[in-house]
Each structure stands twice: as C-alpha cells, then as structure tokens.
Amino acid sequence: MTRPDSTRPDAIGPGRAGEVFRIFLQLGLTSFGGPIAHLAYFREAFVVRRRWLEEAEYAGLVALCQVLPGPASSQVGMALGLRRAGLTGALAAWLGFTLPSALLMIGLALGLAHGAVPPPALVHGLKLVAVVVVAHAVWSMGRAFCRSAATGLMAGLAAAALWLRPEAWMPVVVLVLGGLLGAGLGRPAQASFDPVLQVRVAPGLARAARWGFLCLLAGLPLAAALAPHDSAVAVMAAFYRAGALVFGGGHVVLPLLDVAVVAPGWMEADRFTAGYGAAQVVPGPLFTFAGYLGAGIQAGPGGWMGGVLALVAIFLPSALLVIGVMPVWARLRRWPVLGAAMTGFNAVVVGLLLAALVDPLWTGAVRHGSDAALVLAGCLALVSGRCPVWALVPALVVASWLLGLH
After folding, report:
1. CB-side exposure of 392: number of CA atoms within 13 Å?
2. Are 154 and 138 a contacting pair, CB within 8 Å?
3. Which tens digit of pLDDT belongs to each residue from 190-219?
4. pLDDT tens readout for residues 18-64
5. CA–CA distance, 99 with 220 (Å, rounded to integer)
6. Distance separating alpha carbons of residues 248 and 82, to the nearest angstrom
7. Greatest CA span in the chain, whole angstroms?
8. Would you say the C-alpha torsion 220, 225, 231, 234 has a positive or negative sign?
C-alpha cells in the first residue's frame, strides 16, 4: 500500500494543538530510557503509526537536532509540533512531553525542602546510578567522537580545564575553542542532501528567534552581573546558558549545571548528584532535572516558581533555535565547515562530561571498594544492552541497603 504524502493537508496545518498535546502527553508518561530511546518512540508514533512525515524527513530532522545545542529529543518534538500545528503546536508538544517528569522532579525537590528525609541507602543508590549513567555516556561518546589522537587530546584538555577552573565561563571557552580547532584542523564534512522537513514559519519570526537566542545568551549574563548574586535574573542566566551550550546529548548538561548551581553554593553537591540519579528513573526529557534544581536551590524564587523558571530558561534556547534555524537549515547544512567544527565540539563535550564524572560524581559517591564494585557492575549491565537505565535505580538502591552503604 502506498504511504500517504506527509505534506497532505491533515499532516500540516493549524488548529491541532490539542491533538499534539494529547499525543505528547502520552509519550511524556511512557517514554523511559533517555534521549535515544525517545527518538525511537517518536519514530514509531509519528512515522510508522500516524504517518505525519516520511522516514527520510524524520532522519533529516534528527540530524538537525543533533547538530543544534540543546536536548535533541525535545527539539524533535517541538519541530513535529511546529510542523503539525504551528507555534501553538510546538508549545503543546513541549508542554505535553515535559509536564509529567517536571512535576515529579519539582515535587521531589519540594519534599526535600520541607524536611522529608529519604533513607540514606536511597540517596546513596541514586548517587551511584548517576555515576554509572555518566560513565557509560563518557565511554560510548568517547568511542564515537574521540577516534583520533587530536580529538582525544582535545577531550583531555577540556576536562583538565574544567577541573582547574570549575567556573561558569569555562565550558563556554572550551566549547568555542573546540569548535575553532575542529574547523581549522578537521576535514570538511560532505554536505547532506536528505529531505528537509518543511515548516511554516514567517521569515521575520525566524530572524527574530535567531537574534533572540543570541541576545539572551549575551545579555542575560550582563544583567545577572548587575543583579544580586542569588537573584532570579542570575538563575535564569545560569539555566539559559546551560541550555544554549549543550552539544552531544542530554547527559552533557550535567557539567554545565554543576558549575551553574554547585560552584556558586546554591546547592550542596550531594543533593545535586542524588537528584540527577532520580532523574534517570522518570519518563520524558532528562532536562527536567532543571526543575528539581530550580525548586531546591538557595537562589531565585525557589519552590514551584523557581522550578518553572529554571525549566523555561533551560528549554527556551531550544525553542528559539528550532523556530529560527529550521527554515534556513537547507542552506546551512551545505556548509562543509559546519561538520568539521562539530568534530571539535563533540570532542570537547566528552571532556566536559569526563570532568563531571570525576568531580562531583565519583568523589561524592564512591567512598569504598564496594561502591566501585557496584559502579562497575552497573556499567557492565548497561554496556551489555540487557539492562535499561531505569532498572538500575531499584537494583543499586537495594544493593546499597543490603551492603549498608551511605
């Protein structure tokens, strides 16, 4: 049977935001397993079952969102909502996919803030989960992005830079240098000619989104410098910067958020690490960890308002980039230097993740030989492909309890 044309009137058109929200809410409630798994869920839901777009269009969209900074799965969702129902569809897709895990993570932070004391074994198990997940990410991303001596050296230097100067501006510096080195030393990538997903965005709105992304990236730190250290503006600047500079996957946000909230003393490292471990077991985007941080840090409004502020700030760059870049992606992807620069970006990302793995994750969680043994067992389980991430949480929590670890 011939597949219906993905550009048919019922595939693109306004007035379907409610439908988009309903579908993405279902995905937000059931999509476990992290960003790569989310992309598989989306393909099944929108390419295979509903036929909103063709296979090649979906592949091209995923490639675009892998190049853009930010959470790839959330950006793919926003783009699908934008394609289906315009700007309201993009908002509906983000809200539906994000809401379940955001409520869970903010609720966890509020429970801790109101005196709830979790069992020590639970906290320790969650910290070990964070170590295992990030170690697996470093291993898999290192194999993919550090295949030469040059990229391996770039990753090592990036990690060393963040160890020596764990400050908010350091990830920005090493990412820029990595991109420049990649563009200067790498081989230009061949242009991609896969079909481009067509969306209806006015040229003026797309330009405004691109300028808005850049102006906020430059302007928020300046505004934060003029405001009190723990003001709402400072919180928004920190989370916007983290969302705007994440290349290579959801776990890469960890070192950026660490320097944003732990380094200035807004949150204790142990609570930060435990929250990141808890984020592994909830469905939906990993970036909702920002809601936990915004609700629990000693800065900004805190509580529900702080959680919402952090979520909006960390996802806003992605929304602006999807709206601003998709209409011009057909031209941008033909620049060979873009692929070469991404080689440098990706190598640096591995280094940033390695730095976070060592400190605060390993130093805060692995204190005994039994801790190291559990981490090794968890890594082997993930590498084997037979154990989903969410299953590690009860396994390591129970193991911590049985061994008396805390």
Report:
1. 35
2. no
3. 444 455 667 788 899 999 999 999 999 999
4. 999 999 999 999 887 677 678 878 888 898 888 898 877 887 787 77
5. 26
6. 23
7. 63
8. positive
